[in-house]
Design a protein that fits this description.
The chain is mainly β. Helices cover 4% and strands 54% of the residues. The chain has one helix spanning 72-79, and strands at residues 12-16, 22-29, 33-39, 42-48, 57-63, 67-68, 91-101, 106-115, 118-133, 139-150, 169-183. An 8-stranded antiparallel beta barrel has the order 1-4-5-7-8-9-10-11. It comes from Streptomyces nanshensis. This is Polyisoprenoid-binding protein. Residues 13-182 form the Lipid/polyisoprenoid-binding YceI-like domain.
Length: 185
């Protein structure tokens, strides 16, 4: 038997727990495989209004230099002017402009994503994974979701043609969010 979550109990301000949160991405490489990576340094806050989810808000700041694909050469290239141009644009940001409940445990968070100084509206479907009190007395919630963006829309356009046709890096990039957030006291 399942019961609906009492979201009113979750109302409050939260901070992302960076040691239990993953902000990752997936892109096709050479048209035959996927490269996965993550950003290891970020901060995030959320205000959750459990009774009126549309009054909730989210803010995320990612350090571009923290990109990690488990390959130092590739990470260096991704930080360069060919991709993230992190010396000029050290942060990737997301600021919500709207939150909508889309089912019992489903939400859509729409907001302004800024990469390389270019801002576009994106919607991230998130599923509420639950709430727990950890052994240290912290109230924490979990959310998961993903969305796909076109990196060209953000001025991230470097590529190389393959001799067999196609391109080295896909334009579509899936952003992945596995979130653990702790309620502020």
């Amino acid at each position: 038997m399942t019961t609906a979550t009492d979201y009113a109990k979750l109302t409050g301000d939260y901070e992302l727990d960076p040691t239990h949160t993953r902000i990752g991405f997936v892109a096709r490489h050479a048209m035959v495989t996927k490269v996965r990576g993550a950003f290891n340094e970020f901060t995030g806050t959320a205000h959750i209004d459990g009774e009126k989810p549309e009054q909730s808000s989210v803010e995320l700041v990612i350090k571009a230099e923290s990109i990690d694909t488990r390959n130092a050469d590739r990470d260096g290239h991704l930080r360069s002017n060919d991709f993230l141009k992190m010396d000029e644009y050290p942060e990737i940001t997301f600021r919500s402009t709207g939150v909508r409940q889309d089912g019992d445990d489903a939400f859509e968070v729409t907001g302004d994503l800024t990469i390389k100084g270019v801002t576009r509206s994106v919607t991230i479907p998130l599923s509420f994974e639950g709430q727990a009190t950890d052994p240290f007395g912290n109230s924490r919630i979990g959310l998961e979701g993903s969305t796909t963006i076109n990196r060209q829309d953000f001025g991230v356009s470097w590529n190389a043609p393959l001799e067999t046709g196609g391109l080295l890096v896909s334009d579509k990039v899936t952003l992945e969010f596995e979130i653990s957030a702790v309620k502020k006291s």
